[in-house]
């Protein structure tokens, strides 16, 4: 497989302050893990800056302006209890959007088969008019909207295996039946949404996991509910909100996945993409807060995207 790997030093400029789990070291540990010879075939791409026009596919201009107005000249400013801005946050957040949109362009024009975007800040909690949960702009939602706008795709699927529910992505697409949003997440846990009764127009599928669940329950639920729904939907493009905080060592949740579970779900999604959309997958980093577990899990995920 031709696999793109997006990164950029600007993602380190989003500084969340001492002790914050969503820290620049997350990307440093991923970068080190992907330096080994088995990743020599990755096509490394410097993430371009995104544009206001791209962000406005999901967020109103007032949302962008509010973030700009809140940027501190130095240090940190809190937008809420856990969502933080630093002087470099706008640059990082725009580049995260640029990465996923460039990946859409390159995958849709067959310059590569799939892509992994090692970006931050993450995106899936960001609602159209609300930054929250470490997220400023909803990168994956923007990518979906961008793909639909520019490539006229009928069916776009977003699979979110981050341990938290992607309330922002659900809010963006709950009344747009040509985007299927499926999420597995620990409940109860932040942000408190993601009940199975939240179904949008039949295009939202929420699959809660319980604290202590392992890869056995995770694979059972994907096999019984999510994978059949994806096969039936036949996506023209498959986007992944790739959070690795369902790992057993993650400090923010209590699901007990191991690296092999991330290999398994990646293979299953590649299988569906191969049969419905020539393998087109764009995976974007969301959570994952134990640095060693994150690096090892991303390594397995990317190695699988490369073809194992
Ligand atoms: Zn998460």
What does this 3D model show about the protein?
The protein has 308 residues and is α/β, with parallel strands linked by helices. The protein is 38% helix and 15% strand. It has nine helices and ten strands. The strands form two sheets. An eight-stranded parallel β-sheet has the order 2-1-5-10-9-6-7-8, sandwiched between helices. A hairpin with a 5-residue loop joins strand 3 (77-78) and strand 4. The longest helix has 20 residues, at 89-108. The protein is globular and about 50 Å long. The model has no long low-confidence stretch (mean pLDDT 98). It binds zinc ion. Zinc ion binds next to loops.
SSE order and pairing:
Blueprint: E1 3-7, H1 25-33, E2 43-46, H2 52-55, H3 61-70, E3 77-78, E4 84-85, H4 89-108, E5 114-117, H5 139-151, E6 156-160, H6 167-173, E7 179-186, E8 204-209, H7 215-233, E9 237-242, H8 259-277, E10 281-285, H9 291-305
Parallel strand pairs: 1-2, 1-5, 5-10, 6-7, 6-9, 7-8, 9-10
Antiparallel strand pairs: 3-4
Zinc ion binds near residues 162, 164, 243 and 287.
